[in-house]
Structure prediction request, 162 residues.
Amino acid sequence: MKELSIENIQALAEDIELEVKRATGKDGKGELPQSFFETYSAMANTSGGVVLLGIEEKPKGTFRAIGIPNVEKVLKALWDGLNNPQRVSANLLSDKMVVRVVIDGKPGIEVTIPPAPRSKKPVYIGENPLTGTFQRRFEGDYKCDRETVRRMLAEQTEEARD
Prediction:
């Protein structure tokens, strides 16, 4: 199992290629955050990135390992969502991209999201690319406007456009 330390994560800080999420849920036992798939869409539609589940960022720029008590529950929700075309348009992940980690002695999950190939863009949540497509900018996930989505759809062809 891969081990991480908050000091190493702190040095990286959240940016275009790193996002941290609590993943504890309302009951504190573990739940995939609702915003996970927005981040998945955003990273897939830009340059990819890593999401670390089981870490809290409060105040901004200060990370704390909180762990995920029920890692299995979170993993099941993640894979169920990725393989549900009504939840997300494309599953770009393989088993080796979703790994259990230990962060300062606490269980967590590291999800490495690759950039989507042009033929799969846009990667979107829900069933409508015009309303469910996101891109990553700096440290945030931003909904794409219609023109950006239309451009991604037009660029899906195999041939390079000038």
Helices lie at 6-12, 36-45, 71-82, 129-132, 146-154.
